[in-house]
Amino acid sequence: MKEFNLEEAKAGKPVCTRDGKDVRILCFDRKEKSYCIAGLYIDEDGDEVLAAWTNEGRDCEGSTCHFDLMMVDEEDKPKHEFKPFDRVLVRDCDTEHWVCNNFSHYQQDKTYPYVCLGFTSWKQCIPFEGNEHLIGTTHNYEIK
């Protein structure tokens, strides 16, 4: 993720919350003095939630919050199409160790989209083949 950029967001670049929830911007000119950006995101129950942010993408004025807006950095996201039972490495964040698992399916929840056997959900999922050296490490995955 990258810091929020109002002009890029207005140009249609993808936006998410700091904690990784995709945001659909509805407008940038909400009739409210401080919180003029309005958008929707999907909560943990699968419900669409209406929220508002400042022009700087802040949810809470003056402090950093997990609902602040961020720009989605598409280049940092590995693009893979997994099939059921594919061997994969998974983790939730860059400070966690990669662990082995078997892919099951994708889910609509963009925060934890990769579901593996045992119904465990993960934020990051990469192919096992060619990445065996990452098992048990926190090293970054490099797209080849």
Structure description:
This protein is mainly beta and 144 residues long. The protein folds into two domains: 74 residues; 57 residues. 3% of the residues lie in helices and 34% in strands. The strands form two sheets. Strands 1-6-2-3-4-5 form a six-stranded antiparallel β-sheet, with no helix packed on it. The chain has a five-stranded antiparallel β-sheet with strand order 10-9-8-7-11, with no helix packed on it. A hairpin with a 5-residue loop joins strand 4 and strand 5. The protein is elongated and about 50 Å long. It starts with a strand and ends in a 17-residue tail after the last strand.
Quick tags:
144 residues, 2 domains, 6-stranded antiparallel β-sheet, 5-stranded antiparallel β-sheet, 34% strand
